[in-house]
Amino acid sequence: MVNQIVVVGSGVMGRGIAYVAAAKGFEVTLVDIETALLTSAKQELERIAEKGIVRGKMSADEVEQLFLHLRFSTDLKAAAADADLVIEAVPERLDIKRSVFETIEAAARPTCFFATNTSTMSPTEIASFTKRPDRVMAMHFFNPVHLMPLVELVRGLETSDETVTALTDVAERMGKETVVIQEFPGFVTSRISALVGNEAFYMLQEGLGTPEEIDKAIKLGLNYPMGPFELGDLVGLDTRLHNLRYLHEKLGEKYRPAPLLEQYVKAGRLGRKTGRGVYDYTESGVKAP
Protein backbone atom coordinates (compact mmCIF):
# COMPACT_ATOMS: atom_id res chain seq x y z
CA MET A 1 0.00 0.00 0.00
CA VAL A 2 1.18 3.52 -0.79
CA ASN A 3 1.99 5.59 2.31
CA GLN A 4 5.09 7.63 1.43
CA ILE A 5 4.48 10.13 -1.38
CA VAL A 6 6.99 12.51 -2.97
CA VAL A 7 5.62 15.43 -4.99
CA VAL A 8 8.12 17.04 -7.36
CA GLY A 9 7.51 20.72 -8.08
CA SER A 10 6.14 23.23 -5.57
CA GLY A 11 4.11 25.34 -7.99
CA VAL A 12 0.36 25.75 -7.78
CA MET A 13 -0.39 22.13 -8.66
CA GLY A 14 2.44 20.47 -6.76
CA ARG A 15 1.79 22.30 -3.51
CA GLY A 16 -1.93 21.57 -3.85
CA ILE A 17 -1.36 17.85 -4.35
CA ALA A 18 1.01 17.74 -1.38
CA TYR A 19 -1.50 19.58 0.81
CA VAL A 20 -4.39 17.25 0.00
CA ALA A 21 -2.26 14.11 0.42
CA ALA A 22 -0.89 15.23 3.80
CA ALA A 23 -4.38 16.22 4.97
CA LYS A 24 -5.51 12.64 4.33
CA GLY A 25 -2.70 11.10 6.35
CA PHE A 26 -0.08 10.26 3.71
CA GLU A 27 3.54 10.99 4.61
CA VAL A 28 4.45 13.61 2.01
CA THR A 29 7.68 15.28 0.90
CA LEU A 30 7.37 18.28 -1.40
CA VAL A 31 10.53 18.73 -3.46
CA ASP A 32 11.81 21.69 -5.46
CA ILE A 33 15.18 22.98 -6.59
CA GLU A 34 15.29 26.08 -4.34
CA THR A 35 14.53 26.61 -0.66
CA ALA A 36 12.87 29.95 -1.47
CA LEU A 37 10.32 28.19 -3.67
CA LEU A 38 9.51 25.73 -0.91
CA THR A 39 9.18 28.54 1.63
CA SER A 40 6.71 30.30 -0.65
CA ALA A 41 4.74 27.07 -1.07
CA LYS A 42 4.64 26.47 2.70
CA GLN A 43 3.38 30.00 3.35
CA GLU A 44 0.62 29.61 0.77
CA LEU A 45 -0.46 26.26 2.24
CA GLU A 46 -0.57 27.82 5.69
CA ARG A 47 -2.89 30.52 4.34
CA ILE A 48 -5.15 27.88 2.78
CA ALA A 49 -5.24 25.98 6.08
CA GLU A 50 -6.08 29.15 8.01
CA LYS A 51 -9.01 29.80 5.65
CA GLY A 52 -10.13 26.22 6.20
CA ILE A 53 -10.26 26.79 9.95
CA VAL A 54 -12.14 30.07 9.57
CA ARG A 55 -14.70 28.43 7.29
CA GLY A 56 -15.13 25.43 9.56
CA LYS A 57 -13.71 22.98 7.01
CA MET A 58 -10.82 21.93 9.26
CA SER A 59 -10.04 22.06 12.95
CA ALA A 60 -6.80 23.47 14.40
CA ASP A 61 -5.81 19.92 15.41
CA GLU A 62 -6.34 18.67 11.83
CA VAL A 63 -4.17 21.46 10.48
CA GLU A 64 -1.46 20.63 13.00
CA GLN A 65 -1.56 16.98 11.94
CA LEU A 66 -1.44 17.98 8.27
CA PHE A 67 1.83 19.84 8.70
CA LEU A 68 3.29 17.01 10.77
CA HIS A 69 2.76 14.80 7.72
CA LEU A 70 4.30 17.32 5.28
CA ARG A 71 8.03 17.87 4.76
CA PHE A 72 9.96 20.07 2.34
CA SER A 73 13.23 19.18 0.59
CA THR A 74 15.58 20.21 -2.20
CA ASP A 75 17.11 16.70 -2.38
CA LEU A 76 15.07 14.72 -4.89
CA LYS A 77 17.31 11.65 -4.82
CA ALA A 78 17.09 11.27 -1.04
CA ALA A 79 13.33 11.84 -1.00
CA ALA A 80 12.67 9.39 -3.84
CA ALA A 81 14.72 6.66 -2.15
CA ASP A 82 12.02 6.23 0.52
CA ALA A 83 8.96 6.80 -1.67
CA ASP A 84 6.11 4.43 -2.49
CA LEU A 85 4.85 6.90 -5.11
CA VAL A 86 6.46 9.89 -6.81
CA ILE A 87 4.10 12.43 -8.40
CA GLU A 88 5.79 14.80 -10.84
CA ALA A 89 4.16 18.24 -11.09
CA VAL A 90 6.77 20.32 -12.93
CA PRO A 91 6.09 22.62 -15.92
CA GLU A 92 4.79 21.05 -19.14
CA ARG A 93 8.20 20.79 -20.80
CA LEU A 94 9.43 17.40 -21.88
CA ASP A 95 13.09 18.15 -21.10
CA ILE A 96 12.26 19.02 -17.49
CA LYS A 97 10.05 15.97 -17.07
CA ARG A 98 12.72 13.75 -18.57
CA SER A 99 15.30 15.03 -16.08
CA VAL A 100 12.94 14.36 -13.17
CA PHE A 101 12.04 10.84 -14.27
CA GLU A 102 15.62 9.85 -15.00
CA THR A 103 16.60 11.06 -11.52
CA ILE A 104 13.83 9.24 -9.69
CA GLU A 105 14.37 6.08 -11.76
CA ALA A 106 17.94 5.93 -10.49
CA ALA A 107 17.00 6.66 -6.87
CA ALA A 108 13.65 4.97 -6.20
CA ARG A 109 12.98 1.39 -5.12
CA PRO A 110 11.86 -1.00 -7.89
CA THR A 111 8.42 -1.20 -6.26
CA CYS A 112 7.84 2.57 -6.39
CA PHE A 113 5.09 3.90 -8.65
CA PHE A 114 5.58 7.04 -10.77
CA ALA A 115 2.87 9.49 -11.83
CA THR A 116 2.90 12.61 -13.96
CA ASN A 117 0.44 15.43 -13.35
CA THR A 118 0.37 16.40 -17.01
CA SER A 119 -2.80 17.79 -18.57
CA THR A 120 -1.94 16.96 -22.18
CA MET A 121 1.37 15.14 -22.58
CA SER A 122 1.91 11.44 -23.27
CA PRO A 123 2.38 9.22 -20.20
CA THR A 124 3.75 6.58 -22.58
CA GLU A 125 6.56 8.88 -23.71
CA ILE A 126 7.24 10.02 -20.15
CA ALA A 127 7.32 6.38 -19.00
CA SER A 128 9.99 5.65 -21.62
CA PHE A 129 12.42 7.72 -19.52
CA THR A 130 12.27 4.95 -16.90
CA LYS A 131 12.95 1.22 -16.76
CA ARG A 132 9.49 0.58 -15.26
CA PRO A 133 6.92 1.79 -17.81
CA ASP A 134 4.39 -0.64 -16.34
CA ARG A 135 4.46 1.37 -13.07
CA VAL A 136 3.90 4.79 -14.66
CA MET A 137 0.68 6.64 -15.52
CA ALA A 138 -0.78 10.15 -15.50
CA MET A 139 -2.64 11.51 -12.47
CA HIS A 140 -4.23 14.72 -13.73
CA PHE A 141 -5.34 16.82 -10.76
CA PHE A 142 -7.31 20.06 -11.16
CA ASN A 143 -6.77 23.54 -9.79
CA PRO A 144 -7.39 24.32 -6.95
CA VAL A 145 -6.55 20.78 -5.87
CA HIS A 146 -8.08 21.06 -2.39
CA LEU A 147 -11.47 22.03 -3.88
CA MET A 148 -11.72 20.17 -7.20
CA PRO A 149 -13.13 16.63 -6.78
CA LEU A 150 -11.72 14.85 -9.84
CA VAL A 151 -8.48 13.06 -10.68
CA GLU A 152 -8.21 11.97 -14.31
CA LEU A 153 -6.14 8.75 -14.40
CA VAL A 154 -4.58 8.07 -17.79
CA ARG A 155 -3.06 4.74 -18.78
CA GLY A 156 0.03 4.68 -20.94
CA LEU A 157 0.68 1.91 -23.45
CA GLU A 158 2.40 -0.32 -20.88
CA THR A 159 0.68 0.76 -17.65
CA SER A 160 -0.21 -2.36 -15.65
CA ASP A 161 -3.52 -3.14 -13.99
CA GLU A 162 -1.65 -3.19 -10.67
CA THR A 163 -0.59 0.43 -11.21
CA VAL A 164 -4.11 1.52 -12.14
CA THR A 165 -5.51 -0.15 -9.01
CA ALA A 166 -2.85 1.33 -6.73
CA LEU A 167 -3.14 4.90 -8.03
CA THR A 168 -6.94 4.77 -8.08
CA ASP A 169 -6.76 3.76 -4.41
CA VAL A 170 -4.40 6.68 -3.67
CA ALA A 171 -6.71 9.20 -5.35
CA GLU A 172 -9.75 7.84 -3.52
CA ARG A 173 -7.91 7.95 -0.18
CA MET A 174 -7.24 11.62 -0.98
CA GLY A 175 -11.01 12.04 -1.15
CA LYS A 176 -11.18 12.33 -4.93
CA GLU A 177 -13.47 10.89 -7.57
CA THR A 178 -11.66 9.20 -10.47
CA VAL A 179 -12.03 8.34 -14.12
CA VAL A 180 -9.63 5.93 -15.81
CA ILE A 181 -9.06 6.56 -19.50
CA GLN A 182 -6.71 5.49 -22.26
CA GLU A 183 -4.01 7.84 -23.46
CA PHE A 184 -4.85 10.29 -26.25
CA PRO A 185 -3.60 13.88 -26.61
CA GLY A 186 -5.47 16.18 -24.22
CA PHE A 187 -7.26 13.28 -22.49
CA VAL A 188 -10.94 14.18 -21.84
CA THR A 189 -10.97 17.35 -19.78
CA SER A 190 -8.13 19.30 -21.40
CA ARG A 191 -9.53 18.80 -24.89
CA ILE A 192 -12.91 20.23 -23.92
CA SER A 193 -11.51 23.00 -21.70
CA ALA A 194 -9.01 24.10 -24.36
CA LEU A 195 -11.74 24.32 -27.01
CA VAL A 196 -14.07 26.35 -24.78
CA GLY A 197 -11.33 28.70 -23.61
CA ASN A 198 -9.97 29.23 -27.10
CA GLU A 199 -13.43 29.86 -28.58
CA ALA A 200 -14.05 32.46 -25.87
CA PHE A 201 -10.93 34.32 -27.01
CA TYR A 202 -12.14 34.21 -30.62
CA MET A 203 -15.46 35.68 -29.42
CA LEU A 204 -13.66 38.46 -27.54
CA GLN A 205 -11.44 39.09 -30.57
CA GLU A 206 -14.54 39.39 -32.78
CA GLY A 207 -16.20 41.88 -30.42
CA LEU A 208 -19.07 39.55 -29.61
CA GLY A 209 -19.16 40.68 -25.99
CA THR A 210 -17.08 41.77 -23.02
CA PRO A 211 -15.21 39.19 -20.93
CA GLU A 212 -17.77 39.68 -18.16
CA GLU A 213 -20.68 39.08 -20.54
CA ILE A 214 -19.12 36.00 -22.11
CA ASP A 215 -18.22 34.51 -18.73
CA LYS A 216 -21.71 35.21 -17.36
CA ALA A 217 -23.36 33.61 -20.40
CA ILE A 218 -21.30 30.43 -20.04
CA LYS A 219 -21.83 30.20 -16.26
CA LEU A 220 -25.56 30.84 -16.24
CA GLY A 221 -26.46 29.40 -19.65
CA LEU A 222 -24.35 26.22 -19.51
CA ASN A 223 -24.07 25.88 -15.72
CA TYR A 224 -20.26 26.10 -15.65
CA PRO A 225 -18.90 26.98 -12.19
CA MET A 226 -16.42 29.42 -13.74
CA GLY A 227 -16.39 31.35 -16.98
CA PRO A 228 -13.66 30.53 -19.55
CA PHE A 229 -11.80 33.79 -18.90
CA GLU A 230 -11.95 33.36 -15.12
CA LEU A 231 -10.61 29.83 -15.52
CA GLY A 232 -7.94 30.88 -17.99
CA ASP A 233 -6.69 33.57 -15.63
CA LEU A 234 -6.64 31.04 -12.79
CA VAL A 235 -4.63 28.33 -14.57
CA GLY A 236 -2.46 30.83 -16.46
CA LEU A 237 -2.91 32.04 -20.03
CA ASP A 238 0.62 30.87 -20.84
CA THR A 239 -0.34 27.38 -19.71
CA ARG A 240 -3.53 27.55 -21.79
CA LEU A 241 -1.54 28.67 -24.84
CA HIS A 242 1.07 25.95 -24.37
CA ASN A 243 -1.65 23.29 -24.18
CA LEU A 244 -3.39 24.64 -27.28
CA ARG A 245 -0.16 24.62 -29.28
CA TYR A 246 0.43 21.01 -28.28
CA LEU A 247 -3.13 20.00 -29.19
CA HIS A 248 -2.94 21.95 -32.45
CA GLU A 249 0.19 20.02 -33.36
CA LYS A 250 -1.33 16.66 -32.43
CA LEU A 251 -5.01 17.05 -33.33
CA GLY A 252 -5.22 19.71 -36.01
CA GLU A 253 -6.77 23.03 -36.92
CA LYS A 254 -9.65 23.15 -34.48
CA TYR A 255 -7.10 23.77 -31.71
CA ARG A 256 -5.23 26.63 -33.44
CA PRO A 257 -4.72 29.28 -30.70
CA ALA A 258 -6.67 32.52 -31.07
CA PRO A 259 -4.33 35.39 -32.05
CA LEU A 260 -5.66 37.49 -29.18
CA LEU A 261 -4.62 34.82 -26.66
CA GLU A 262 -1.12 34.87 -28.14
CA GLN A 263 -1.08 38.67 -27.82
CA TYR A 264 -2.03 38.52 -24.14
CA VAL A 265 0.79 36.08 -23.42
CA LYS A 266 3.33 38.17 -25.37
CA ALA A 267 2.26 41.18 -23.31
CA GLY A 268 2.90 39.28 -20.08
CA ARG A 269 -0.78 39.25 -19.18
CA LEU A 270 -0.78 35.69 -17.88
CA GLY A 271 -3.58 35.87 -15.31
CA ARG A 272 -3.73 35.92 -11.54
CA LYS A 273 -0.06 34.99 -11.10
CA THR A 274 1.09 38.20 -12.83
CA GLY A 275 -1.72 40.41 -11.51
CA ARG A 276 -3.30 40.86 -14.92
CA GLY A 277 -4.73 38.58 -17.58
CA VAL A 278 -8.13 39.01 -19.18
CA TYR A 279 -9.06 40.68 -15.87
CA ASP A 280 -7.01 43.03 -13.70
CA TYR A 281 -6.15 41.66 -10.24
CA THR A 282 -4.02 44.57 -9.03
CA GLU A 283 -5.26 46.72 -6.17
CA SER A 284 -6.53 49.40 -8.52
CA GLY A 285 -7.97 46.94 -11.01
CA VAL A 286 -11.41 45.45 -11.46
CA LYS A 287 -11.17 41.88 -10.23
CA ALA A 288 -12.97 39.01 -11.90
CA PRO A 289 -16.41 38.14 -10.50
Automatic annotation (TrEMBL):
Family affiliation: Belongs to the 3-hydroxyacyl-CoA dehydrogenase family.
Organism placement in taxonomy: Bacteria, Bacillati, Bacillota, Bacilli, Bacillales
UniProt pathway: Lipid metabolism; butanoate metabolism
The keyword Oxidoreductase appears for this protein: yes
Keyword Nucleotidyltransferase: no
InterPro entries to which the protein is assigned, alphabetical: 3-OHacyl-CoA_DH, 3-OHacyl-CoA_DH_NAD-bd, 3HC_DH_C, 6-PGluconate_DH-like_C_sf, 6PGD_dom2, NAD(P)-bd_dom_sf
UniProt xrefs under Pfam families: 3HCDH, 3HCDH_N
Enzyme class: oxidoreductase
Site annotation Important for catalytic activity: residues: 140
GO-annotated biological processes: fatty acid metabolic process
Name by which UniProt lists this protein: 3-hydroxybutyryl-CoA dehydrogenase
NCBIfam families for the chain: PRK09260.1
One GO molecular-function entry: 3-hydroxybutyryl-CoA dehydrogenase activity
Record organism: Exiguobacterium oxidotolerans
